[in-house]
Amino acid sequence: MLRSREYRAKFASSREDFLKAFSLVYRRYLNYRLIKTNEKELFYTPYQALPDSRVCISYHKLTGQITSTATVVLDSELGLPSDSTYKAELDALRAKGRKLAEITCLAAERDLCYRNGILFVFRLLYRYARLKGATDFVISIHPKHRDFYEKIFLFEPIGEVKYYQNLYNAPAVLEKLDLTTVKERFYKVYGEFPEGKLFADFLIIIDYLDDIPELAKVRNMKARDFWHFFMDYWALFPSFLPHFQKFFSIKFDMIVCEEVA
Asked: Which value, to the nearest 10 degrees, does the dihedral of the CA atoms of residues 218, 59, 183, 173 take?
């Protein structure tokens, strides 16, 4: 799969891209009973609209079908999604001067080949996080997925199993990946056999030209798309916490003015 390059990864930039990503997350989360049904059949959060966040999607090169998605959220004054459950653990990392980036809203189609597209998503998110100076990935996952993240991607648990109230009270465990040492760890684990080295090279080596135009994108969600998803299509903005309302009001009013000018 890695040799054939049947998949591509990109950051969502159009309304259609965001719709496909949010729809996939909804279907997969609903299948795992992490969320309740809703009439829109979409799942998304205000963190995905933050300027420095990136909603990443992988797709099949020939068919164009979306196969997986994940969002990276950079730590800021608005915090991270997992602060709702693991604020003490995240604050301990912040106190050490760590710059965090959270992977959230991860979902993949059930077909095994399509699930492999998540590797392309992970590579692009890794490159973006490092470009932005992040020192650690953090992720809250269902305990039954621990083996995948710990044995394949080398994440380490840093919190006890808790119940994630934002996802229908689902069990979760907080995991961390040190991005400053991940290269050495990957080659130590995977570098001694050809298939493993191919895997490590694919995730870590930064010579994939397909990623360059994606990493050069300076904008996440456009102002008109923000208002579509959070006001016009689904009036979620009034439910935001006050500091989120203030941030988005200022940010997107400024962008609208710039676009009109």
From this structure: 90
